Amino acid sequence: MLSKPATMLLGLIREKPLNAYEIIKRLNYMNVKWWFNIADSTVYSTLKALEKKVHIRCD
């Protein structure tokens, strides 16, 4: 089972490939922190974990 941050990030990058910085900018634009406080470091670590589990591929 995926965590809430992992599910959210996969949903964002499903629409369009984004790097961590672009994801953070999009989350800020969407005011996600208002309902789910996700730290910038969590975005980076979650992407690394998803890559390690082969859910995504970083080029």
Produce a short descriptive summary:
With 59 residues, this protein is mainly alpha-helical.
Describe the structure.
This protein has 59 residues and is mainly α. The chain is built from three helices and no strands. It has helices spanning 4-15, 20-29, 40-52. The longest helix has 13 residues, at 40-52.
Topology:
Layout: H1 4-15, H2 20-29, H3 40-52
Q: Top keywords for this entry?
A:
globular, mainly alpha, 59 residues, 59% helix, 3 helices
C-alpha Rg (nearest Å): 11 Å
Fraction of residues in H or I helices: 55-70%
Number of helices: 3
Describe the main β-sheet briefly: none
Residue-averaged pLDDT: 88
Fraction in beta strands? under 5%
Order of helices and strands, N to C? Answer: HHH
Oligomer state of the chains in this structure: single chain
Question: What's the N-to-C terminus distance?
Answer: 25 Å
Say how many strands there are. 0
Uncertain stretches of 5 or more adjacent residues: none
Shape: globular
Structural class: mainly alpha
